[in-house]
Amino acid sequence: MARPDDTETAYKVFNDPIHGHIELHPLLVKIIDTPQFQRLRNIKQLGGVYYVFPGASHNRFEHSIGVGYLAGELVKSLQKKQPGLKIDERDVLCVQIAGLCHDLGHGPFSHLFDGMFIPKARPDLKEDKIWTHEKASLDMLNHLIAVNNLKPVMKKYKLVLKKDITFIEELIFGKRTDPSDSTKKLPYEGRPEKPYLYEIVSNKRNGIDVDKFDYFARDCHHLGIKNNFDHDRFIKFARVFKVDGEEQICTRDKEVGNMYDFFHTRNSLHRSAYQHKVKNIVEIMITEAFLLADKHLKFEGKFTLSTAIDDMVAYTKLTDNVFEQIFLPTPWELDEARTKEDLQDLNKAREILTNIRRRCLFKCVGQFYSAYRADIEDMRLHLLDDQKNPLAIKLLPEHLKVIKMDYGMKTENPIDLVRFYRKGDKEAFKISRGQVSTLIPRHFQEWLLQVYCTETDEKILAMARKEFEVLCQTWTSKKVPTPIPGEFEVWLLQVYNGTTGTDEKTQMMARDFYELWRKTLTSEEKRAP
User: Fold this and answer.
1) Residues β-bridged to residue 240
2) Which of 231, 272, 482 is nearest to 374 (CA)?
3) What is the pLDDT of residues 100-125, one digit of tens each?
4) For 158, how many CA atoms within 13 A lie in the half-sphere containing its CB?
5) Which of 1-5, 7-11, 138-142, 257-261 has the least mean pLDDT?
6) 482 falls in which pLDDT band (50, 70, 90)?
7) What is the distance between the alpha carbons of residues 156 and 151, in angstroms, rounded to a whole number?
8) Which residues are catalytic?
9) 418: three-class secondary structure by DSSP
10) pLDDT digits (tens, 9 = 90+) for 25-72
11) What is the DSSP string of 49-82?
């Protein structure tokens, strides 16, 4: 991007441990140097993971700078290699701002706040009113622009305020919902003629975007886990092709293995770190403490921890420091009219957080995986039923955590949504699983049940864990086998389950056919009224 004529020193160089020395546009620097953005210095990127991996001390601040940088690298690469796309300097700057500001709305301990605390503390926010950090990012961005008087600066760099701010919001959030019909998405307004730009920061098509490029590399670096995906190669080979009448970002055919590594890395990070059993225990305990302390904490005089999301001035005060703030005397506590009963919740919250500090955590009884949510739900209800529970310990609903694990596109193979091109070709195409490897996963989504308890007696805990292992080994899926009429279908199901004497090749072909049949049936069911 061309530098402003008035100054070169306004471009700022950041020495980033992941991307090296990176140079940012002066408008991005102006955004960074605001209280609303600086707040991200005090919000851990991985929340409770820091209590398991001592190196995971990085924050949303550096991740956001990294995403802003990578967004610029990708859009400028497309601009240089495909001038026919007519990507201009406004487009580049808007994409960079969206990357920089995409996480402005995160609350204390990142996903703990919007994924665990707010749903319990604010049950009034349901359906179309569900609060997410993406929605909060839009609110915080507009607040940041207003209170720091950035509109004149944006005009200085040739941005068209209403149109370009709308474009930046769409890059972060995606398509908006029609107010008159919550099931309908409105078309893009910012750059409808350049739909591929919407795939850079938050890719709704297949999940391949610079947000993940940065957090894969950054999280792996701080966690000490190997990152097999090379985002620099993706940026180098990225091109825009028209697919089914719409332009989208595609990559070289030889990069298909790298793309499978992309989704494998995502899954590995979830298994190793993001859904680590001790991390989830810590976050369950922090959530419980936040709920107990909610009404005792005040921001801007009248907002509590859960209602601060309704006011961006108050919300700016919310960081991970809330953990420490709970231990400080509160106005509620200092009110002499309050009784000990009024303070029971606050004292209980402090006790929970003190237990975290002392590593007196809930215990994990065990974990159970299934390809089907129904199996997980059946086991969860089984364990909550005192008459059926074989573990001999009392379990509470909040101590049974149900987790969805996938490759980012629910049950679909996300590579099926990616298009590739050959060197010199003018058309993009799909690469099937059979053209890559027979070792590629057949299932792309599974469900995990993690069972925790507050039991501290080691003997009782050991017995409970043993009984849970027995339960997992004897648990029968309610989904497979599925009754199918007809002799051929019965034989197909038997081959699928490995109960016939057919050779390996026949079994593999039958299993592929059976999976296709089940997928078709599921699709028909979805289309049924």
Assistant:
1) 249
2) 482
3) 999 999 999 999 999 999 999 999 99
4) 10
5) 1-5
6) very low
7) 9
8) 133
9) coil
10) 999 999 999 999 999 999 999 999 999 999 999 999 999 999 999 999
11) GGGT-TT---BHHHHHHHHHHHHHHHHHHHHHH-
Spatial CA neighbour of 138 closest among 110, 175, 98: 98
Instruction: Kindly state the percentage of the chain with pLDDT values over 70.
Output: 86
**Helices H / strands E in the chain, number of each:** 21, 10
Q: Dihedral (C-alpha) 331, 333, 334, 338: value to the nearest 10 degrees? A: 120
Give per-residue pLDDT as tens, 281-297: 999 999 999 999 999 99
Closest CA to 75 of 145, 168, 149: 168
* Token pair recorded at residue 520: 């078709």
366: helix, strand or coil: strand
SS percent in the chain: helix, strand, coil, step 5: 55, 10, 35
- Within 10 angstroms of residue 281's Cβ, the number of other Cβ atoms is 22
Q: What does the block give as tokens for 428?
A: 């993009």
Task: Give CA–CA dist 491/511, Å, rounded.
Answer: 11
**CA 353/CA 108 separation, integer angstroms:** 15
Q: What does the pLDDT read at residue 126?
A: 80
pLDDT at residue 440 in the model: 84
DSSP, collapsed to helix, strand or coil, labels residue 183 as strand
- Hey, CA dihedral for 370, 373, 377, 382, is it positive or negative? negative
d(CA 522, CA 303): 46
CB 401 within 8 A of CB 278: no
Number of neighbours of residue 502 by Cβ within 10 angstroms: 15
Please tell me the pTM assigned to this model: 0.88
